[in-house]
Design brief:
By secondary structure, the chain is an alpha/beta fold. The chain contains 10 helices and 8 strands. The protein is globular, with a radius of gyration of 18 Å.
Length: 271
């Protein structure tokens, strides 16, 4: 495994004399936009009510209003943490959930992360104005691959500044399936430094989803004061529990009902 501390020193302008207070694997203070060292831990309990860790998700391009009505009803019934939807449905979802315990989460720069930062910012702001309490943005994967850390941080900061100003939670999707281990570390450090509260494994639209190894690595990098969302390929209760045990405190899935009911849904076998 790559040394997280060494990578932090290599790609971020840090003062080795300033020690990390938030428990992150980088050990040296990242001088984050928001210091969360005194915040409560965000680690999860796999024996607790799984529904409160689930972002009940529907992001398919052929989604229609009837689908949003259904998942909002399910969210209210099972008390899911949020519904995760595309921006065009935020207003509808908020109208159905505003008096419930479930939040509206919208994706931004989805699914490639290749939008201009200004566009991501405007998209996030519009979603929040329409009722989104959480934003899941895709980071600039191209800048990450090129080790252009400044552009990567600025991209996230454009959205995090808006979220912080509007009291919304920001999760940064790093798309782990496309990254080397070093890139996963850089992406998590950049998200943390730029003011995001969560790092998230996957869009569910690329070459792979969440793995236990990636979740454990991400938790080690960010430490206990930040969130880790596992998403992509989580279809049943057993897998969800394993993700939480590995370090996730949020689960993104379209199988939320099956998970809380304990049904063992597995992907179809393609022959």
């Amino acid at each position: 495994m790559n040394n997280i501390r060494e990578i932090a020193l290599k790609y971020f302008a840090l003062d080795e004399r300033q020690k990390c207070r938030c428990g992150g694997g980088h050990e040296i203070c990242l001088q984050c936009k928001i210091c969360r060292a005194d915040d409560p831990d965000m680690t999860a309990d796999s024996k607790a009510d799984l529904a409160r860790y689930i972002d009940h998700t529907i992001l398919k391009p052929h989604t229609v209003s009837q689908d949003i009505e259904r998942i909002c009803l399910e969210a209210k019934s099972y008390k899911f943490k949020s519904v995760c939807i595309n921006p065009i449905f935020v207003s509808l979802a908020y109208s159905r959930l505003k008096k419930t315990e479930s939040l509206v989460c919208s994706v931004v720069g989805f699914p490639l992360g290749a939008n201009l930062s200004e566009v991501k910012g405007e998209e996030a702001l519009n979603c929040i104005r329409q009722g989104a309490g959480e934003i899941d943005m895709v980071n600039n994967i191209s800048s990450l691959k090129e080790r252009d850390v400044s552009t990567l941080i600025n991209d996230i900061s454009t959205v995090s500044d808006i979220c912080l100003n509007k009291d919304a939670i920001l999760k940064v999707i790093i798309e782990t399936c496309l990254l080397t281990e070093e890139e996963k570390i850089i992406a998590c450090l950049a998200a943390k430094k730029a003011g995001a509260l969560f790092v998230k494994t996957s869009t569910g639209f690329s070459t792979g989803g969440a793995t236990l190894e990636d979740v454990a690595l991400m938790r080690k990098i960010v430490g206990p004061k930040y969130g880790v969302k596992a998403s992509g390929g989580i279809k049943n209760r057993k897998t969800a529990i394993k993700m939480i045990e590995a370090g996730a405190n949020r689960i993104g899935t379209s199988s939320g009902v099956d998970i809380v009911k304990g049904m063992e849904r597995t992907p179809p076998v393609i022959v």
